[in-house]
Amino acid sequence: MQEQEPEPEFEYGDRSLRLNLALIVGIYFLIAIGLQPLIDFLLVPDPEAADPYRVMALAEEKQKLTGYVYSIWRMLPILFFLWYGWRIIASLRVPPAGTRSPFTVRIIKGKPARMFGMLLILVALLLLYRELLTLTKLTG
């Protein structure tokens, strides 16, 4: 007699969580779009000092500040995925124990879940390293 595999388990998605996720992603992108005009508003050149060298220096300062702000802003979702991978490894389960999912997902337990968590952490660390390199190039 052949051993049968257990029937797969599913965690069903939560509609309100799905709507909240869409709202958070939308707000994230709206803030990202609004960062550049905010930086331009805060670093307004002095109208009395019409020196072209001061204007060029201010433009360079704006460029550096914009690079810093957007690099840090891009790190936020990367840090979320790093944390989520850590939660997967800690619980040995995808999705992690104690969390709700916005979509219907098949539950993965044990070693495959740990490998998925490690992969998620590896990708997040590589992207984080890339952002840190961008920040160091801006300072140098």
Tally of helical runs: 3
Specify the structural class. mainly alpha
What order do the helices and strands follow?
A: EHHEEEH
Identify the strand order in the major beta sheet: 1-3
* End-to-end distance: 68 Å
Transmembrane segments: 21-39, 72-92, 113-130
Keywords: Membrane, Transmembrane, Transmembrane helix
Report on this structure.
- With 140 residues, the protein is mainly α.
- It has one domain (10-43, 50-139).
- It has three helices and four strands.
- The strands form two sheets. It has a two-stranded antiparallel sheet. The protein has a two-stranded antiparallel ribbon with strand order 2-4.
- It is elongated.
- The model has no long low-confidence stretch (mean pLDDT 91).
SSE topology:
Elements: E1 10-11, H1 15-42, H2 52-91, E2 93-94, E3 105-106, E4 108-109, H3 111-139
Antiparallel strand pairs: 1-3, 2-4
Sum up the structure in keywords:
single chain; 140 residues; mainly alpha; two-stranded antiparallel ribbon; two-stranded antiparallel sheet; 3 helices; 4 strands; 69% helix; elongated
Summarize the structure.
This protein has three helices and four strands, in the order βααβββα. It is mainly alpha-helical and 140 residues long.
